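Minutes, project check-in
Item: structure for the 124-residue chain
Input as provided by the requester:
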Amino acid sequence: QVQLVESGGGLVQPGGFLRLSCAASGFTFSNYNMYWVRQAPGKGLEWVSSIDTGDRGPLKYYYADSVKGRFIISRGNRENTVWLQMNDLRPEDTAVYYCNAQSRAGAMVIYEFWGPGTQVTVSA
């Protein structure tokens, strides 16, 4: 049974930090590119960050401009986990954060899985 389970969300003051975790099971985690996507209240899904499998050389990391320099994505294939370290949090970072896993053949997504999400609220 495929599962992605996010944790680590919560209420934090502006300027604070949180570390989100996404634990994966039921599929070969190391073969999947991993993504963090968020949805703010009343808005659509927004891609936040991604990390590839590293099967073609060093791991590649990608960030949305809105979080670049503040968020850090990482993965542990032994732990079947992807993390998102979020620093210098701002009220506009308030959202439900989702973990997403994709296996790809070039630009084509072969399999895709989603977690249920974890709420992050940044407020004084």
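Outcome recorded: The mean pLDDT is 96.
No further action items on this chain.
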